Amino acid sequence: MKPIQVTIEESLLHELDRHLRGHRRGRSAFIRESVRLHLVQLRIRALEEQERRGYAKKPIRKGELDALYRRQDWGPK
């Protein structure tokens, strides 16, 4: 791992410290996990936007997915 220096508002730091009291992980672990989760969210948003643009270019036609829906098993009715 590589140490970095981060500037953070005092109020946010106090809130973080209050949250971490009584937990067995420190600031660095919390911040690492928060960054990982945020990057995942950014990737998901980018994929959703890519999908939205794709469907905007080529919308699903009426009845196009009917055969697929007929083959799916939705369980007991």
Briefly, what is this?
The chain has 77 residues and is mainly α. It has one domain. 62% of the residues lie in helices and 0% in strands.
Q: What would you note in describing this structure?
A:
- This protein is mainly alpha-helical and 77 residues long.
- The chain has one domain.
- The chain is built from 3 helices and no strands.
- The longest helix has 31 residues.
- The termini are far apart.
Annotation keywords:
77 residues; mainly alpha; 3 helices
| Unreliable sequence segments | none
Question: Roughly how many Å is the radius of gyration?
Answer: 22 Å
End-to-end Cα distance, whole Å, is 53 Å
Report the sheet with the most strands, covering strand number, pairing sense and barrel closure. Answer: none
Tell me what portion of residues adopts beta-strand conformation.
under 5%
Secondary structure tally, helices: 3
Number of separate strands: 0
Domain unit count: 1
**Share of helix, binned:** 55-70%
Q: Give the overall form.
A: elongated
List the helices and strands and how they pair.
Layout lengths: L9 H11 L6 H31 L8 H6 L6
